[in-house]
């Protein structure tokens, strides 16, 4: 009886092995993805230390972890996660990072040329929507292959709040934060569903202060950064889920930063994610107020991206 050799593990590069990059690597290992995880950082000593530390956890999975030989090797990976960049200081907005992170993104993309034409680039560094635009332009990859974690993390925060209010599991809450992974985010309340029923029909939501809930969700990152300097566990779990959907062609729907032809920019909306990247966005029905807030988010994103065309 002949047996087929196992396919080689997917290569997942993580550029920036600081708090977020190393936590994404840990989440990939814990999710037991069959992957060779390749860490890259301008601080090679730090990357080496993280790789050594993470390698102590790989016994639970079929992943392996090591440091990149060079930037060209990173460019040939199947999935390239970019977390390299400055992070917010307490009270600082994500949008304020653009000048610093634009230059870092430029050097990262330039350094890994020529890029594998089938690579999927997942942008995590902030501001995500703007950096997706920049990374796509500089890499020359098709738009569906360059996307960002977007409002996935904000939506996870929202779903947790809603799940606690209704005493249901988070996976049964279908409600999204959309627009921008930043201060212009909005909750698509009118499209929210739990067990197929409109979220706003539940008794707990009839007189709920929706603006307050949305504000708490949007401020959660600020509170975490104020208390401990950075956020990383939530985004680690989010990015591992995105990588899994690409590797297994799961076609799960995630609220991610993807190019929206209607808006003519990268913006966070629910989209189907498979092994060719973003397959298509899901048209979320928004009420008039939500639509106006979404248009504001698009306007704000475009006002910044047009400086980087
Ligand atoms: N999209 C999201 O939901 C989230 C995004 N973030 C963002 O992720 C980014 C990283 O955050 P942390 O990991 O906490 O910061 P960190 O400071 O711990 O790590 C950043 C790493 O990037 C590296 N780096 C800087 N320039 C580089 C270059 N040219 N090439 C390779 N590596 C380079 C640094 O040496 C450092 O190790 C920030 O922009 C932060 O705002 C953080 C949490 C959630
Ligand atoms: C830092 C950040 O973007 C977040 O935790 O949402």
Automatic annotation (TrEMBL):
Pathway: Fermentation; pyruvate fermentation to lactate; (S)-lactate from pyruvate: step 1/1. One of its GO terms (molecular function) is L-lactate dehydrogenase (NAD+) activity. The active site is at residue 181. Residues 11-148 form the Lactate/malate dehydrogenase N-terminal domain. Coiled coil: none annotated. GO terms for biological process: lactate metabolic process. NAD(+) binds at residues 16-21, 41, 101, 124-126. It comes from the Eukaryota. Keywords: NAD, Oxidoreductase. GO terms for cellular component: cytoplasm. Residues 151-307 form the Lactate/malate dehydrogenase C-terminal domain. Its EC number is 1.1.1.27. It catalyses: (S)-lactate + NAD(+) = pyruvate + NADH + H(+). HAMAP family: Lactate_dehydrog. Belongs to the LDH/MDH superfamily. LDH family. This is L-lactate dehydrogenase. It comes from Tieghemiomyces parasiticus. The lineage of its organism: Eukaryota, Fungi, Fungi incertae sedis, Zoopagomycota, Kickxellomycotina.
């Amino acid at each position: 009886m002949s047996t087929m050799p196992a396919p080689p593990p997917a290569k997942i590069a993580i550029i920036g092995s600081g708090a977020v990059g190393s936590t994404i690597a840990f989440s990939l290992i814990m999710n037991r993805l069959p992957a060779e995880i390749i860490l890259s950082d301008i601080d090679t000593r730090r990357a080496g230390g993280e790789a050594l530390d993470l390698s102590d956890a790989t016994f639970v999975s079929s992943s392996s972890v090591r440091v990149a030989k060079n930037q060209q090797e990173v460019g040939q990976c199947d999935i390239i996660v970019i977390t390299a960049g400055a992070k917010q200081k307490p009270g600082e907005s994500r949008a304020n990072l653009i000048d610093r992170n634009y230059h870092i993104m430029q050097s990262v993309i330039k350094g890994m040329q020529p890029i594998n034409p089938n690579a999927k680039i997942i942008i995590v560094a902030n501001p995500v929507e703007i950096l997706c635009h920049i990374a796509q332009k500089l890499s020359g990859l098709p738009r569906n292959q360059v996307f960002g974690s977007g409002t996935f993390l904000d939506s996870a925060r929202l779903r947790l709040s809603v799940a606690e209010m209704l005493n249901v599991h988070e996976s049964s809450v279908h409600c999204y934060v959309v627009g921008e992974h930043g201060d212009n985010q909005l909750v698509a309340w009118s499209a929210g569903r739990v067990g197929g029923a409109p979220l706003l029909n539940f008794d707990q939501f009839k007189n709920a202060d929706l603006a307050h809930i949305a504000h708490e969700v949007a401020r959660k990152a600020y509170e975490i950064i104020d208390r401990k300097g950075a956020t990383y566990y939530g985004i680690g779990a989010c990015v591992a889920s995105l990588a899994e959907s690409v590797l297994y062609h799961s076609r799960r729907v995630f609220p991610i930063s993807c190019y929206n032809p209607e808006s003519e920019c990268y913006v966070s909306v629910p989209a189907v994610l498979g092994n060719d990247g973003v397959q298509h966005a899901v048209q979320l029905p928004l009420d008039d107020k939500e639509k106006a807030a979404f248009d504001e988010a698009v306007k704000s994103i475009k006002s910044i991206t047009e400086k980087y065309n």
